[in-house]
């Protein structure tokens, strides 16, 4: 945009130079006639006309660019103002959230919400019992863990949510690195205290067939990472106290492992059910085969009885009846019933024949 004013200045200087040249030419040629001067003026005007036209175009273009620049600056100002307002709103909401999370009740609910969300993401809702459903009697009090994960085979793992945020928030709001380091070290000590308190409850001793460890869930990757960075021995200390430190990512991995075990358990249950059904089907096939065999024997007996009755009828009864017809007792002919030639088919499949009475 700065090149156009420079070019305009150069063109104006060129026009001024042409005008000065014309005046000097007129002074140096006093004997020039009026016709010659008119021709010179016309030639000069003809030569300058394209330059003037170009200058008009440049001036119009400059006005358009200036208008566009003003509009663009106005839009940019609106966007900057919008971003500033958004940042102010986000800053206020963040400050409000940080203030709210400093209250223990809010932190507790926030941790439980993240715990439930983690269980949903892992697809383990059907195998996890939450606080309202689970309570166990300790040595001198009623213990209420946040969640109990039911493992395949009847075992259970206790998960307790802890949200150590005071020192962590102070570290994020610190004005200097040294001050932030002090708060982070305090944050590591707070997490270590939670580990000791959770270990002292000995949740694994309150449930039958429970593995001897409890899961301490920290609902934030950065929160747990900061504690481990501030206290490098924290993980080893937790393991010695039978406490497993878990962020949302590691808890999802743990719950998906449990879900895989449940899948395998379901497959095993299905296999056992199929085996039971196969035994029942095999026994029932044998029972039905016995019924069919007895039915076939009965049918064979019925056929033999029928054929014997027909034979007796023809050899004993119809002979006398025909003699009566010869004596003109009746003119109606007597029909002889037919013998049954078909027989029942015997079972030959070994699965059906084995075990049948001979």
Can you describe what's shown?
With 358 residues, the protein is an alpha/beta fold. Among the domains are: 163 residues, Trna Endonuclease, Chain: A, domain 1; 70 residues. 68% of the residues lie in helices and 7% in strands. It is built from nine helices and seven strands; from the N terminus they run αααβββββααβααβαα. The strands form two sheets. Strands 1-4-5-6-7 form a five-stranded mixed sheet. Helix 3 packs across helix 8 and helix 5 crosses helix 6. It is elongated and about 175 Å long. The chain starts with a helix and ends in a 5-residue tail after the last helix. The mean pLDDT is 76.
Spell out the blueprint of helices and strands.
Blueprint: H1 3-28, H2 34-101, H3 104-122, E1 128-130, E2 136-137, E3 142-143, E4 147-150, E5 156-161, H4 166-172, H5 177-200, E6 214-217, H6 221-230, H7 234-240, E7 243-246, H8 248-326, H9 350-353
Parallel strand pairs: 5-6, 6-7
Antiparallel strand pairs: 1-4, 2-3, 4-5
Helix pairs in contact: 1-2, 3-8, 4-5, 5-6
């Amino acid at each position: 945009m700065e090149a156009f004013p420079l070019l305009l200045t150069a063109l104006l200087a060129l026009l001024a130079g042409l005008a000065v040249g014309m005046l000097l030419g007129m002074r140096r040629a006093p004997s020039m006639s009026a016709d010659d001067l008119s021709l010179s003026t016309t030639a000069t005007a003809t030569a300058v006309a394209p330059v003037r036209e170009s200058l008009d175009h440049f001036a119009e273009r400059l006005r358009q660019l200036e208008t566009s620049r003003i509009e663009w600056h106005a839009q940019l100002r609106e966007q900057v103002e919008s971003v500033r307002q958004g940042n102010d709103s986000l800053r206020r909401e963040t400050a409000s959230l940080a203030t709210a999370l400093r209250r223990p009740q809010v932190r507790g609910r926030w941790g439980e919400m993240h715990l439930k969300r983690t269980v949903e993401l892992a697809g383990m809702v059907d195998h996890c019992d939450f606080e309202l459903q689970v309570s166990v009697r300790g040595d001198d009090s009623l213990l209420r863990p946040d969640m109990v994960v039911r493992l395949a085979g009847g075992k259970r793992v206790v998960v307790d949510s802890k949200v150590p945020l005071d020192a962590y928030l102070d570290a994020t709001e610190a004005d200097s690195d040294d001050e932030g380091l002090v708060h982070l070290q305090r944050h590591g000590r707070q997490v270590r205290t939670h580990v000791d308190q959770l270990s002292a409850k000995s949740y694994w001793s309150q449930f039958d067939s429970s593995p001897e460890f409890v899961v301490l869930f920290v609902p934030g990757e950065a929160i747990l990472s900061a504690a481990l960075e501030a206290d490098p021995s924290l993980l080893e200390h937790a393991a010695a106290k039978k406490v497993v430190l878990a962020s949302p990512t590691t808890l999802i991995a743990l719950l998906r492992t449990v879900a895989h075990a449940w899948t395998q358990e379901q497959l095993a249950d299905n296999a056992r059910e199929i085996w039971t059904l196969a035994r029942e089907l095999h026994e029932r096939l044998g029972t039905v085969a016995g019924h069919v065999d007895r039915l076939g024997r009965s049918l064979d007996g019925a056929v033999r009885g029928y054929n014997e009755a027909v034979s007796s009828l023809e050899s004993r009864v119809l002979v006398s009846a025909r003699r009566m017809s010869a004596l003109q007792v009746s003119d109606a002919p007597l029909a002889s019933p037919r013998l049954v030639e078909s027989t029942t088919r015997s079972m030959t499949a070994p699965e059906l024949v084995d075990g049948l009475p001979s």
